[in-house]
Amino acid sequence: MRRRLGSVRARATLGTTLVVAVALLAAGTAVLLSLWTNLSGQAGTQAERTAREVAAELAAGQPYRELSLDDDDRPVQVVTEDGTLVAVSEHLERISGTGTDAVRPATVPAAAPGGDGDRDTDDDDSAGASALEPGEIADDPSYSDGSATVDGESGDYRFAAVEVETEDRGTLTVYAGAPLSTERTAVRTALTVMLIGFPLLLAVVAGVTWLMTRRALRPVEGIRREMAAITASADLARRVPEPDTHDEVARLARTTNETLAALEAAVERQRRFVADASHELRSPIASLRTQLEVGAAHPELLDVPGAVEDTVRLQHLAADLLLLARLDAGERPADTRVDLAALTRDEAAGRVRVTVDAEPAEVSGSRGQLRRVLANLLDNAQRHARETVTVTVRREGGLAVVAVADDGDGVPEADRERVFERFVRLDAARSRDDGGAGLGLAIARDVALRHGGTLTVRATPEGGALFELRLPSV
After folding, report:
1. What is the pLDDT of residues 372-391, one digit of tens each?
2. Which residues in the chain are classed under CATH 3.30.565.10?
3. For domain 336-472, is the CATH number 3.30.565.10?
């Protein structure tokens, strides 16, 4: 169970369902409040209409006993300023939420001519205190909620209170109620529909999200299975399936395959490197062993210069392999200011057939590694030159350029990239002793790249080889 809840599909389904549930809860609450407010407002309007009808009769001087109070569904009370109930609708048994709980009108004196005789206008001192003129009905009613029992049936009501000023009875307040049963029924119905519909809707949302997420993540599962198979088999030639879409999963699959291709190339390069290094080491080691075995058996036949030469070759090869290993490991060059012109003159000093034309050009990097680059380029040029090697150092914009040219046969255009591969010899007939291990140009390019530069080869106008080292100047 914990594993299922930990999956992306389960979390996406749960998260979506929770968000929809919160949204539905908020929307449902808003709908119920709006529905109740609107329906209560309608009930208040109905109650106000009834109260104003009765108030209009009172303003016209209608006696209490002749008021239109016979609506069984609308309880009505008429109350004086001192809270005395003087008229009430028929069949009203109980009421609350109005100005008085009385349901039986108080006994009033006999009516005077033109009225009910409830009040002698000569003795009424409060009429003058009213803000209403005789016969006028207040514009702003007040509302309250309460309950009432009419003809044995109890219910909740919305009451409206309307004041009216009469000629002979002072200020009267008419309380009229409208039942809220319809409104409450509507709200309960809406709530029932929500309680039934919302869980069903959430179930549909969860199901659809689960299926859609499953469909969307199916390619990811395919990628995972294939990666697990590649890990188990160690077969880097395999590739994960790429869905025929343009979404994030397709980009993930393409990036994964690109990573696998780069990893396969790196492993293959490392395998070739180990095989070539072993092959290159085997020859001088075998030669050195043979010479030592012969010297041990016949000291007079020991070729000491040859043994020293093989030992030096082994030393140089080991140094080259160690430098390549450090470069492959991502070793960052030192941050030292190096004058390429001075470094080139130092490296060319003592070499025959080498001319140097250099202007000051400073770069940032490792003096030792840059010296190795210059040495490898000069060794390569001297090995292939017929007569002379020309070295120039100049500045081009923000770059320092070192050009090493020879007057040899040059490098065929088809091999101008291959020449920088490790253990590559373009002249297959050339002996190992004359040509080295084929690591010099590979080391030179790797060092150039680590210093943020480039190393390329092209032909000179005379047909020889021109190697150009370009590094950012400081």
Report:
1. 999 999 999 999 999 999 99
2. 336-472
3. yes
